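One record is kept unedited as follows:
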Amino acid sequence: MTTYATGIMKTEDFNYSLPEELIAQEPAAERDGCRLLVMERESGALTDRIFRDIEEYLRPGDLLVANETRVLPARLLGAKRGTGGAAEVFLLREVAGELPRTNQRAYWEVLVRPGKRLKPRTGAVVDFTDEAGKVVLSAEIVDWAPGAQKGERVALLTTTMPSLDEALHAVGNTPLPPYIKGYAGDTELYQTVFSKRESSAAAPTAGLHFTPELIERLRAKGVRWETVELEVGLDTFRVVDEEDPATHQIHTEFFTVPQRTIDAVNEAHARGGRVIAVGTTSVRSLESAWDADAGCLRAREREATSLYILPGYQFKTVDALITNFHVPRSTLMMLVSAFSSRENLLAAYEHAIAERYRMLSFGDAMFIH
């Protein structure tokens, strides 16, 4: 794990009081019709706008870099074999195992409930049925996950269907953040319009505000659009429990930065344009692709990153940031504080709460430039 810090910080420094009624429980009526709080990175000056107004702040030659990952149907509700007790298995990431991967078999790191009844090497298996009541997918709990926190296991998934992908779409559910209660709307609204490969347990939510029409208008203006991929894990929702944030163990995630995106970044900077990250996952992807020895970006293909950005970090690539409002005491609050300052960020959050902005994943956005 790489950490960057100056002086003495406390996790409490990144806390704020979040009124529960401001946690957005459904998406905005129009993706680009949500509110946008524009903040000047150095001064902290604030302006209230609408998200589609982002067009006014972008210039020809600027580059937007977004995370194109798609959310898996990762939440599986089933029954423990032998007892019939209700059980939940939440897919986190695919991992290597003792047996080779096939279309019908693979190992995954998972989060299970109830954890006490689903322990490794006890023969615990959870079965999942389709609409006809037929078992089409099973998860055998085979090991503890590396550095396991509460409920984290390694499971061997097997299916009777032609592929695991088909099975997951037959029995899985798109997971929503734990603070969104009872949403029964279209889960496609928790996917970005530009998402591609299903590889994440959570959405890169800053990208939810873009529409195809807005992206095309920006391109017509001379703003370039490129993508990266970071497989978002549940760590994005976790608060930091340690008093000293530098001692927090951030989860490893896998990311891809293609050569075309590297070329676009280099061209934008060479022509005086800005590289604008759409979301903190794009920030972590771009900054993780920096080769310190060579002093430049290097293309990456599903490499692991545990980059942990705290105030004091020197950004190598990103010049501006589009982001949502984040959970108190989270690593994302720390990352955004590093991009501007803790004082500026907390003042912006105080303003947003006073103005009744909608918060967190389905909520409104910030543009820091």
